[in-house]
Specification:
The structure is a single chain. With 307 residues, this protein is of the alpha/beta class. The chain has 2 domains: 2-139 and 264-293, Metallo-beta-lactamase, Chain A; 146-257, Rossmann fold, CATH 3.40.50. 21% of the residues lie in helices and 25% in strands. The protein has helices at 46-55, 115-119, 146-159, 175-185, 193-201, 222-226, 265-275; strands at residues 2-3, 6-8, 19-21, 42-45, 64-67, 72-75, 78-84, 92-98, 104-107, 129-134, 164-169, 189-190, 208-209, 216-220, 234-239, 254-257, 279-285. The longest helix has 14 residues, at 146-159. It binds zinc ion. Zinc ion (ZN) is lined by residues 24, 26, 87-88, 110. The site of zinc ion (ZN) has 5 residues, from loops.
Length: 307
């Protein structure tokens, strides 16, 4: 997506004069970025700068324009308002207005609505085009609060206190869950070295360890699809929005908990009702409903087995 000289969450276009806005450090939002990147500046938060520099130490620090939620930046006659996204650490949304033609667009990146986003919702209202995180835009996706999901994960760990626990996480994200588990059980959670490095740069090192004999381990999601499929001694828990599509299998020590850092179907539609964009373009997932119809669709969404 491009707006004037601004490019959002993509590094495939390598032209001088562009500024790349990066909503957060997940790999599906950094397509085209390499350790040799030197083409154009990258505007993101200080935390995202730290995470990207930990992953790509070859990118010169001087290329980063580090900002915070609440900051207002002016670039290429476009006013850019940086807004909180409540996704992974460092994540933000961008609300941009062109001084040339007063056109306003909003790029949400990935997000989960919280009290702070609701308080600052005016920043995101009445865009001509909203580029929207539609990852879980299907009625099957209904999430409890993150607090409830964390309680559910802690309960599962308590019920399996005599076994090794493996949690599915991302390279960055699910940090609140790891922190809550570490504090509740007064133990450090094992992470592989590449994840440990990320926890270190975002100031959360005290909750994790690289000691293999830790009771609770965390691994990137793909680990669960490949290794230790049949191990009965390990209890595997996937805290993810995708949990709504799977059923836990206690007989196989396999559990899914809908802990999500995205909006579910209902809250996403509420967000659209509150912000009233003229047009929606999905960043990921799909969106087919005319904005005028939002809130009038079938009232009773599919009942998740988790609620
Ligand atoms: Zn993300």
């Amino acid at each position: 997506m491009k707006f004037g000289r601004l490019v959002f969450d993509s590094f495939r276009k390598k032209e001088k004069g562009l500024v790349h806005l990066l909503s957060h450090a997940h790999r599906d939002h950094t397509n085209g970025l390499t350790n040799n990147w030197s083409e154009a500046p990258i505007l993101c938060t200080e935390i995202t700068t730290k995470v990207i520099r930990a992953q790509y130490p070859g990118i010169p620090e001087a290329l980063f324009i580090s900002k915070q939620p609440g900051d207002l930046v002016e670039l290429d006659a476009i006013e850019i308002q940086i807004a909180e996204a409540n996704h992974c650490p460092g994540s933000v949304m961008f609300s941009c207005r062109s001084h040339r033609n007063q056109r306003k667009i909003v790029f949400t990146g990935d997000f989960r609505m919280n009290a702070s986003i609701r308080e600052n919702i005016d920043l995101l209202k009445n865009a001509e085009v909203m580029y929207l995180d539609c990852t879980f835009n299907q009625p099957v996706f209904r999430f409890p609060s993150q607090k409830q999901a964390i309680t559910e994960v802690i309960k599962l760990i308590e019920q399996n206190a005599d076994r090794k626990i493996h949690l599915g996480v991302y390279s960055i994200g699910k940090n609140k869950l790891i922190q809550a588990i570490s504090e509740y059980f007064q133990t450090s959670v094992y992470t592989p070295p590449n994840l440990y490095k990320i926890f270190d740069v975002i100031g959360m090192r005290k909750f994790v360890t690289m000691e293999q004999d830790a009771w609770i381990h965390s691994y990137p999601g793909q680990y669960f699809g490949t290794r230790h499929q049949k191990s009965g001694e390990i209890v595997r828990i996937s805290p993810t929005g995708w949990a709504c599509r799977f059923r836990s299998q206690p007989e196989k020590n396999r559990y899914y908990v809908p802990y999500s850092e995205h909006d579910d179907y209902k809250t996403l539609h509420e967000f659209v009702q509150l912000t009233k964009p003229k047009e929606i373009v999905p960043i990921c997932g799909t969106w087919t409903l005319p904005v005028s119809q939002v809130g009038r669709e079938r009232k009773k969404p599919y009942q998740s087995t988790f609620l």
